[in-house]
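== Sequence, structure tokens ==
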Amino acid sequence: MQLQVARIGKPHGIRGEVTVQVLTDAPADRFVPGTEFVVEPASVGPLTVVSARWNKDILLLAFDGIETRNEAETLRGAKLFIETEELDEDDDEGWYEHELVGLEARVGSQVVGKIAALHTMPVQDLLVVEAPDGKEILIPFVEQIVPEVNVAEGFVLLTPPDGLFDVNTDDAGAAGPGDHA
């Protein structure tokens, strides 16, 4: 099984380093020199880590054979995967994106959309729910709002606070700025 652990961003500097969007909760274990990643698209991989370092909150990686900014630019947008068989199915600590994408999002017994993605963020993760009208709704992935994830039956139960599904709609807050009731 392959597990996505990062997405490559823009080049950093002139010596072939790239920024990466980290999609794992164990970056210190995943991005060590010598680690080889399966890459999508396959035409730019596999890639082997030569160095990994943090610049503020951004992880910078250098790969074997990528020595210039122009070479690094060819990697932009590539997804890094690891081969893993050590996924603990009994692990209740969290969910992987591939387990959640495609599940029905329900409020009570009503289907309000499908899970389209999981955004892992520094403070809390966000579920991306695609509503039937195509609108994307960001849902904080916390127990109070997502009390149940049932992969076996194919759904995620949501208990959103009032207005969560209307936050970014055009008619939310119909009173304009400065209008006070």
